Amino acid sequence: xxxxxxxxxxxxxxxxxxxxxxxxxxxxxxxxxxxxxxxxxxxxxxxxxxxxxxxxxxxxxxxxxxxxxxxxxxxxxxxxxxxxxxxxxxxxxxxxxxxxxxxxxxxxxxxxxxxxxxxxxxxxxx
Length: 126
Fold this sequence. Notes:
The chain has 126 residues and is mostly beta strands. 0% of the residues lie in helices and 47% in strands. The protein has no helices and eleven strands. The strands form two sheets. Strands 2, 4, 5, 6, 9, 10 and 11 form a seven-stranded mixed beta sheet that branches. A four-stranded antiparallel beta sheet has the order 1-3-8-7, with no helix packed on it. A hairpin with a 6-residue loop joins strand 4 and strand 5 (46-51).
């Protein structure tokens, strides 16, 4: 069974950091572009970041550039999202998604992805 599982969410104060993990089972992440999306209550799902399968190119939404970093560890079949300088507006459910074999400039379009995790809640509040 193909599955993505996110972890690492939680409650953090503004200015704090979290690292989200996206672990795959049933398939190898090496051949997939992996994206992170988030959905705040009452808002549409938005693309946060993506890492390509071929050359490790990374993409970021303007709202997180310079604060978030996406990376992958193929040996662990896991993709990470390091989130620094968190703001209250980063509060959302964060999802990872996989697209085979590559995605490129359409990385932020959620319908381009084949598999999704169940999400992990991130709350930034004092």
